[in-house]
Amino acid sequence: MISDKVLAMCELMNDLLYQKIPESRHGYYVNQSLSIGYQTAGIIKAEFGENRAPDMEDLYRKFQIKIEFLEKSSKNCGVSFRAQSEYGKGGSAKVLIYMESIEMLASKSQYDLPGETYEGMSRKQALNIHLAHEFFHFLEYKSSVKQGGHMTDIYDKGYVSDYLEPVPLISFMGWKRKGSILRCSEIAAHAFAKELLGLPVLPNFFDYAYLMNEKRLRSEDFQRMVEENGRVFCS
After folding, report:
1. What is the pLDDT along the chain (235 residues), one digit of tens a residue?
2. C-alpha to C-alpha distance for 214 and 2, rounded to whole angstroms
3. Which site in 26, 38, 109, 214 is 20 to 30 Å from 156, CA atoms measured?
4. pTM of this prediction?
5. Residue 52 carries which DSSP code?
């Protein structure tokens, strides 16, 4: 089974500032982001699910988050969305779920790698993963704008990418500019979904499985990336 740390590294590599991160700091961003996601899921399960995965739609009702199911996905630069969050000025929250894209992911989420078989997801499982992922981003948002009252007891770090240390970008005559690693929020959301739902693997694996099944990513290239990222935590 591919480890969470390795799949988190795969996510980290997608950050626009990845090349600015010193190799010695890769583990920091991966480990801290995963830990935040795990811990937050544990709090939710203990408070609302009695240490088991809560019903996601029920959890959304508890936090007054509206779910809007849409059939067709909108696109940006040719990329189809599966879920999007919208936040109103009064603290309202809505998550748009694009069922066509969810179903496409579920139908092409199974994949066999040498010595390992990853079973695919059902439509319901794919939906729950995306609801859990967006719920974590909701917690980030609520914490960042100091809304929600009891939210502090569950999560108080704001956006993970802002909570963790930024990386230096430019230093000129005493003036320094730094940047946040935005993908840390995504890593934490993946870890949150995995822990909350009891998944066997960090859910961004299913995105790679979909791309491999669609012949948009070669299996050997994915395996090479996994092996290279595995060395980060073995050295």
Report:
1. 899 999 999 999 999 999 999 999 999 999 999 999 999 999 999 988 767 788 999 999 999 999 999 987 655 434 468 999 999 877 789 999 999 999 999 999 999 998 889 999 999 999 999 999 999 999 999 998 765 555 678 899 999 999 999 998 876 656 678 999 999 999 999 999 999 999 999 999 999 999 999 999 999 999 999 999 998 876 5
2. 21
3. 26
4. 0.92
5. S
